[in-house]
Amino acid sequence: MPSETSKSTETLAPRDEALPGPDPSGLSPETPDAVATGPRVAGAVVGHAKDVSDIEAGLDALQTTVAPTASRWSKAFHAVYPPVLAIAILLAVWQTLVWLEVQPIYNLPGPEQVWEAVTRAAASGTLWQALGTSLERGVLGFLAAVAIGTPLGILVARVRWVRVSFGPIITGLQVLPSVAWVPAGIIWFGLSDATVYFVILMGAVPSIINGIVSGVDQVPPLYRRVGQVLGAGRFQMIKDVILPAAFPGYLAGLKQGWAFSWRSLMAAEIIAVGGGIGFGLGAFLQQGRELSDMALVFTAILLILVVGMVIELLFFAPVEKSMLRRRGLAPETSTSKGSGWLLRRRELAAAAFGR
Amino acid sequence: MTTTSPARTGTPVATTSDEDTGPTTGVRLRGVSKRFSPTGAPVLDGIDLDIAQGEFVCLLGASGCGKSTLLNIVAGLERPTTGDVEVAGDGAALMFQESALFPWLTASRNIELALKFRGVPRSERRERAAELLSLVRLDGSGDKRVHELSGGMRQRVALARSLAQERDVLLMDEPFAALDAITRDLLHDELERVWEQTGRTIVFITHNVREAVRLGQRVLLMSSRPGRIVREWDVDVYGADEQRSIEAAAASRLATEITNDLREEIRRHAV
Questions:
Q1: CA–CA separation, A194 vs A351, rounded Å?
Q2: From start to end residue, where is composition biased (Polar residues) (chain B) (predicted)?
Q3: Residue to test with chain B: of A230, A234, A324, A327, most B Cβ within 10 A
Q4: Which residues of A touch B118 (CB under 8 A)?
Q5: Number of C-alpha atoms within 13 angstroms, CB side, residue A188?
Q6: Residues of B with CB under 8 A from a CB of A
Q7: Residues of chain B with C-beta less than 8 angstroms from the C-beta of A218
């Protein structure tokens, strides 16, 4: 067999040179056969391999779609205008209610009066003081809750007996309104920052633990099997397979943890006023109530709301979005077609009227 | 149908075979049985199997015949109830029907993770992953996320990841079952090429008879409940230099013969 192939390649060269003339090596009876089969087969195999790689490259190109990227400005516009529209609608409703005088003006101040109260509080510095105090507590308390809740969550998710024994209690703690801890905190720690942080932790830690646990529960069993097959050690399995796979659930837990931190903080600040406790947004709100200054109360409520939204928009939303995009879970954002609901309505209308 | 075929005795390149003259064992099973409950019916019953190093064997059977259980046992994910399992090197790599790539990593990082678990130093991982991607003809796709790859590309990355384990034996559990026919045909060619280049021992599970004939040097038919190996064929229908193809007429005839046996096997279970 090898001799046959070598002979055929030898005979191939002269044959190609003297193409029009009769085959010089065609004298022996078996060479024409070899010439006929040898090179043809070899050529076929090489051609086949080339074919395969070409077809494959074609298929790869056909089956992968490149998402059209919209311009930065159009993206920003489409992200910003729906919420701005919503705020405008809410302001209009508010102003209409004020004009209709459903309540006397001192009970229901309009946007104008509230704006005045905001600028007054900003000018006197109380607004910035309250905002700064509360933000610092909220963020520090939340970070502490993350630092405590994350390892505890891994422990609950991974160790069976811990989960069976403590799981229901943690779920119960999550349901318990953290305001309930304020009196206990005051008795234990007095009117100090410790009370505030205690309430934040009691509110946020169970959420974070539950986030991790549900994230770990939702890890497809196949991923664990892959980790096992690839030979991951116990620690590597947790660090490189289970935690990244559980990240969406963890992030949801963190978001909820932040919401609970912020709420608990406000509850604590409203109830525990004075003593060594600083002046936060809750105290600001309480002050408004004591002065029966409705514009001040509205100012405090708006500030609390805005902080919650800003943290969500500046921190959680980008993290969540990039996580979803990386994992291919983000909805198709084909901005070229217009992602705004108004545009979509217009398209629907156009389709309906056959235009 | 019992002659050992001279066709495609794929020349192993990267095997760590010793100077033994005869073929060294890739996988050897002796009297392997498996029951999931002590009183229940056995899923696998007395399986004896010898697979030589560098051999490509296809394991064929109807659904529920315990093919996957057998593969899990060879992979070391499950223990047999009785019997001995011997696998060349330190265990087997396993590839699944789903690519099971991690969506939070890029194609290259998925492969690098396998290298990391094997203890390959960080500095060598990226280069090694690029070589493996190149082996499955995905040069330049290393930075793509899993969702950006087509089904066929994902399975090729998964194949590269299995190869990254550097195990002599590669077990494949219906790896192409979820792919369209065109892609599957191409992946047959790819897998054959990779097998020839790397000299791995491959045990390939499928319920697709034509696929088994297209790929395997040997095709084993398993019965269901209990799972036993009831028949085997040497695939000697292709000429020595002939490019294997799923459409070849001789292959069709063998596939028909095997299909008849498979159907007969399934029919036994009709009440």
A1: 62
A2: 1-16
A3: A230
A4: 230-231
A5: 12
A6: 75, 77, 93-94, 96, 98, 100, 102-105, 113-114, 116-118, 137-138, 141, 144-153, 161, 165, 182-183, 186, 189-190, 193, 240-243
A7: none
Give the per-residue pLDDT at A96.
Answer: 92
Asked if A232 lies within 8 A of B117 by C-beta distance, the reply is yes
DSSP state string for A240-263: IIIHHHHHHHHHHHHHHHHHHHHH
Q: Taking CB atoms and an 8 Å limit, are A64 and B149 in contact across chains? A: yes
Whether pLDDT at A13 is above 70: no
| pLDDT tens, per residue, chain B with 271 residues | 443 334 333 333 444 444 444 568 778 888 778 888 777 777 888 888 888 888 888 988 777 677 888 888 888 888 888 888 888 877 788 888 888 889 888 888 999 998 898 888 888 888 888 888 888 888 888 888 888 888 888 888 998 888 888 888 888 988 888 888 877 888 888 888 888 888 888 889 888 888 888 888 888 888 777 777 778 877 776 766 667 777 777 777 777 877 887 787 777 766 6
CA distance B4 to chain A (A): 18
| Closest CB to B137 among A1, A53, A245 | A53
Where are the extended beta strands (E) located within A128-285? none
* Start-to-end C-alpha separation, chain B: 31
Binding-site residues on chain A for chain B (CB distance < 8 A): 1, 41-42, 44-45, 48-49, 52-53, 55-57, 59-60, 63-64, 222-223, 225-233, 236, 240-241, 244-245, 247, 323, 326-329
Task: Centre a 10 Å sphere on the Cβ of residue A110 and count the other Cβ atoms it contains.
Answer: 18
Angle at CA B265, nearest 5°, toward B261 and B266? 120
Residue A88: the pLDDT is 92
Q: Which residues in chain B have Cβ-Cβ distances shorter than 8 Å to A244? A: 102, 104-105
| Residue A41 to chain B, least CA–CA distance (Å) | 7
Do residues A25 and A11 lie in contact, with contact meaning Cβ atoms separated by under 8 Å? yes
Residue A225: list chain B partners with CB under 8 A.
77, 96, 100
Cα torsion for A65, A71, A73, A74, to the nearest 10°? -50
Q: Which two tokens stand for residue A10?
A: 């030898």
Q: For position B84, what pLDDT does the model report? A: 83
* Chain B residues close to A222, C-beta within 8 Å: 96, 98, 100
A115: exposed, middle or buried (Cβ count in 10 Å: 0-12, 13-18, 19+): middle
Length of chain A: 355
Residues of B in contact with A54 (CB under 8 A): none
Tell me if the pTM is above 0.90.
Answer: no
Q: How many CA atoms lie within 13 A of A203 on its CB side?
A: 31
CB contact under 8 A, A244 and B104: yes
Nearest-by-CA chain B residue for A52: B186
Residue B28 burial by CB count (10 A; 0-12/13-18/19+): exposed, middle or buried? middle
